[in-house]
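Q: I have 373 residues here and want to know how they pack in 3D. Can you give me a structure?
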Amino acid sequence: MNKYSKYINLFYYIVPVIIFIIILILTDIKTSTDTQRFIQWANEMNLNPFSAISYLFQERGIDGVMFYFSVLYFKISLILNDNFKYFFIFLNFICFISIIHLIKRLSFKIKYYYLIPFFISINYDYIIWSNYLLTDFFFSFLCLVFILNLSLNNLKYINILLILSLVFTRPPGIVSVLIYLQYILFINVLDNKTSLKKNFFYLVIIYIVITILISFSLFYNVFPEIFYDTFQYHRSYYFEGVIINDRPHTYVEVPKNIIDIVKIILLRFISFFVFYDDLFSIKHNILNFLVFTPLYLLSFFTLFRFNSYEIAQKKIILTMILTIISFSFFHSILLIDYDWRYRIPCLIPISILAAMAFEKFNFSKKNLINQVG
């Protein structure tokens, strides 16, 4: 056993937990309009799954049904009545610890796996949500279970179960279907550079075609009636030029043609990864710069060195890339939240890619001696 393993394990768990607790101490418990809606639904919803789904459908159609496990999460926390807020934060903490523990499964594939919890715990745009009465940590946990199963085991029936869990937790859970379909496209060509490039080209074409079709549908107001209300809701944001919700300085001119709709989607896609904003505090912008800049650079380095990794590691890299692209594209089509909350499921995959970059740096004592010599 590595003589440093005891200290690595200590660092692995203790540092993230300490940071989590510090956030809880320094910040107040926060709510949002979503919180109030979920509390109402949780109080009125029956525990019987069929009755619960029927109730949620009546409240908000198919969108309501897709919040089933989120509402159930609230219902569990409401067991303590007046103290439910503290129990909810405790559930967030359990999700966080579970995420840290799950990441350890990568220790057999990623040498510097212990850096991943450190990266996510110092990422203000991730850890700050620990003190919110929202299900982002729960959803992030489910996403991680799904992408780890996909990249490490790829157990078919477990994948289906996890996809259903994600879809019925929050509407963005549908992204898991997109990830899985794209994974199938690439999994058998990871060691074939020609086929890999060809499939990547096909995927880009598919994304372009989808973007054009959606832009056409949005501009000419053509969409299936079953999704009409949801469609009109998101369409209205396009015709206000919204890039980031409730941040008017990011808005563009009202679209006059399909090209303008495509432009909004592209700007949203780019903005999804932006970590600076005029309305952030100076401290927030500085902290984001210090965290996101190395994360992005290291992630790009991992992508650049893709062919130098082992096949098992390539599966992990592929899954992380598909997760990031799929969520960013999905929210570019729909909406990017005011506080970039919707990119939370991507922050762990980005951290995993960043940690994998260190495997291509030679830190051996022999190498350092040779460099000095």
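Q: Anything worth noting?
A: Confidence is low (pLDDT under 50) at residues 368-373. The chain is about 70% helix and 0% strand.
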